[in-house]
Amino acid sequence: MEINDENIGKYLKDGKDEAFEYVYRNYYPFMCKFAMTILRDFDAAKDVSQSTIFKMWKSRESIKTDQSIKAYLIKAVKNNSLNYLRSTGKASDREALYEDSKDGPQTPDYFAKSELLAVVNKVLDGESEERSEIFRLRKFGGYSTKEVAEKLNINEKKVHYNMGVIMEKMAEVLKNYLTLAMIFFVELF
Asked: What φ, ψ does residue 25 adopt, rounded to 5°?
């Protein structure tokens, strides 16, 4: 059974465990990044993304097999993130900021960034768990070098070293995505 983006809806609807794993492996990092744009909280973004996948799995019978799973997940993460903000009383400022954003999921820039993020996540998947976590905390989580070192209970020099190694690899892989990389990394840094 070859699961891909075109047939994932059918396999989800059929309740195939491999389909759940495919969604988690291929879309979870993207979902976390998208949730971060709304929540501005790394832990909350991870929780909302995981919850979204589990809710999708529970209601898999209602999935339309002709619908893009990525579009479905974008909409679900957006709604679940906004619901999270409302339930925690943090909705007013961030929700308004998100709703007014010109760079929402319907724009070409958004999809260009999501494609680039997929490439970045592929690089991170090839790294050690610690190195990936350092990068994710530093660049996606908004933590300073000192905060990452404290959170992971490591030396700041180790954070710098690992960031340097990953950034070199990113530069090599992303050289074919120069325009996209410039857009994406300008916003990250």
From this structure: -65, -40
